[in-house]
Design a protein that fits this description.
This protein starts with a strand and ends with a helix. The mean pLDDT is 88. The protein has a four-stranded parallel sheet. It has a three-stranded antiparallel sheet with strand order 1-4-5, with helices on one face. 47% of the residues lie in helices and 11% in strands. By secondary structure, the chain is α/β, with parallel strands linked by helices.
């Protein structure tokens, strides 16, 4: 058995959105100076077909290809004992720390190439990252049973639209077109919760004058939980759907009793409160936290 140490740094850019992980570069690939460089490995053939791009011949071309398509490339293992270049013989694995890669990039999706890489990722990385990877078939010549067409079909998943690609245009539009609304000027989960309940089945322009008056009367969860019913209904008068006001007070009482007056931060806890469904829970948590 031979001790193999990962001597190649990860390829990752600040705007990389996809991370592809192998198990560890084979001896022949490492000698060639970069990942998947062995002439019989179909990795680059598959990627060029999937992304409809020219085949990168040189090491610099390959790096440029990865940068262009926002792909980061590395391996699950930092070192191991290995016989020859076959992943199936690896022993005494020491995993790579992927956290620095994730922190310096915009990675939104993680993929592994081959069953070995996937099993190692599940064993070493998933438990502490809490991030599930998608297993792709190996492009190695050892995986001869996998036809080129099947590989390309499997790797088409790399082309799916990433959430990050949709975020920037939406944020740009929002900055130009957002309305000046009072509940957008706070990250207090209580105030955001009140606005979200008021906005259920009610127009924004109708809610605006009620929102601040309600908070002036019930500035905290505790004040709402202990508030008089007649005052609560008076402050809600004109908004309609009075069941929403009753649910607000019931939920405030639950928060006082179960969460010591602090608005809960987990989706499971928030959606369990009276009057809060999946949309409202998601809205409160995403805006406040």
């Amino acid at each position: 058995m031979k001790k193999v140490i990962h001597e190649i740094p990860p390829f990752v850019e600040e705007d990389s959105t996809i991370l592809i992980l192998g198990s560890i570069p084979s001896v022949k690939s490492r000698e060639a100076g970069f990942y998947y460089m062995h002439p019989q490995n179909r990795f680059w053939h598959v990627l060029t077909e999937v992304f409809q791009d020219a085949y990168p011949e040189s090491l610099e071309d390959k790096k440029a290809f990865l940068k262009k398509h926002k792909i980061a490339l590395y391996d699950v293992l930092d070192s191991c004992e290995i016989e020859g270049s076959q992943d199936s013989t690896i022993q005494n694995e020491i995993p790579t720390s992927l956290l620095p890669i994730l922190k310096k990039s915009s990675i939104a999706r993680i993929y592994t190439t081959g069953k070995t890489a996937y099993s190692l990722y599940q064993k070493y990385e998933e438990p502490y990252l809490g991030w599930k990877a998608v297993s792709l078939p190996s492009t190695s010549s050892l995986n001869a049973s996998m036809k080129m067409d099947d590989l390309m079909n499997a790797y088409q998943v790399l082309r799916k639209k990433d959430l990050q690609e949709l975020v920037n245009p939406l944020l740009s539009w929002y900055q130009k077109n957002q309305r000046d609304l009072p509940w957008r000027k706070t990250t207090d989960p209580y105030a955001i919760w009140i606005s979200e309940i008021m906005l259920q089945q009610t127009r924004v322009e109708t809610v605006k004058p009620y929102y601040q008056r309600f908070l002036d009367c019930f500035p905290t969860i505790e004040s709402l939980a202990n508030g008089r019913e007649d005052i609560l209904l008076k402050r809600w008068e004109g908004l309609g759907y009075y069941r929403r006001a009753f649910h607000l007070q019931q939920a405030a009482q639950v928060i006082m009793k179960k969460y010591h007056g602090l608005f809960p931060k987990s989706y499971r806890e928030v959606i369990s409160l009276p009057g809060i469904g999946s949309y409202t829970a998601g809205a409160i948590l995403s805006i406040a936290f």
